[in-house]
Amino acid sequence: MSVYKLSSSRVMSPVQEAKIQLAAAHRLAALHELEEGIDNHFTVTLPGHADRYLILPFGLHWSEARASDMIVFDESGATLEGNGVVELSAQCIHAPIHRISGARVVLHTHQTWALALNMLKNNRLLPASQTAAFFHGHIAYDDHYAGIADTLAEGERLGGLIGNKHVVFMKNHGVLVTGDTIAQAYRRLYKLERVCRAQVLAMSTGQPLELLSEAIVAQVQSRPVDDRHSRGERDRLFFEAMMRVVDRENPGYAD
User: Fold this and answer.
1) Engineering a disulfide at 136: which of 127, 164, 204, 218 sits with its beta carbon 3.0 to 4.6 angstroms away?
2) Which of 175, 43, 70 is nearest to 114 (CA)?
């Protein structure tokens, strides 16, 4: 039995629920090799507020993240609740993106296969598989790496770039994914790494890729009228299954 379920009927505050899911996402990212130890950032808008955010304080490894570790910070970088501080680039990238895009969840990583694709001069993710088709038209491309983010202007630039899309490819840097829920955003991040890996591997053969037509991409992205599971339910079921995995492999995130 999982330690925690998104569909649980037990009484829990929205803030505690967000902290538990955020801690689970960090531990999952470590299991899935999407992290860089203590670096990169996952943030969630604090329930009940529009200008405060939850984050794992800098210095903790993602594999040891717990709900009780999460701190609350604002765009000035001040720690409003909890112990620890927000890393500077996390403040400068995430807070403005939350504010400008309205995204509740912002996940930023330097995950290997997505970064490998973003090291190429032509870093476009191509609709060459069913899963890749889901991302087609939903990626913003930042083609000009400007160095480490140390001012809010960088987050504001990225926030303006993302528009109505939910993925940013950051050339020579990494990727950024947004979502309405932690389950949705993490599912996007996980699947993004897998399609980037598939594309890089396919490209390594030196053979031309077979791309899907725009008509097929549109069909893949549209949900059948009689689909038994909504996209929100698919996100929930995916994340609950992943939490059961981390319950077995590295329990304790809900502490």
Assistant:
1) 127
2) 175
Domain ranges of the chain: 14-249
φ, ψ for residue 34 (rounded to 5)? -105, 0
* Residue 112 dihedral angles phi and psi, to the nearest 5°: -55, -55
Length of the chain: 255
Give the tens place of pLDDT for each residue, 188-205: 999 999 999 999 999 999
Q: What CATH number is given for 14-249 in this structure? A: 3.40.225.10
What integer pLDDT is reported at residue 223 of this predicted model? 74
Strand 79-81's sheet: what is its strand order? 79-81, 71-73, 53-55, 41-45, 105-109, 174-179, 167-170, 139-142
Any idea what DSSP says for residue 223? P
DSSP string, 9-68: -S---HHHHHHHHHHHHHHHHHHTT--BTTBSEEEEEPTT-SS-EEEPPTTS-GGG--GG
pTM greater than 0.90 (yes/no): yes
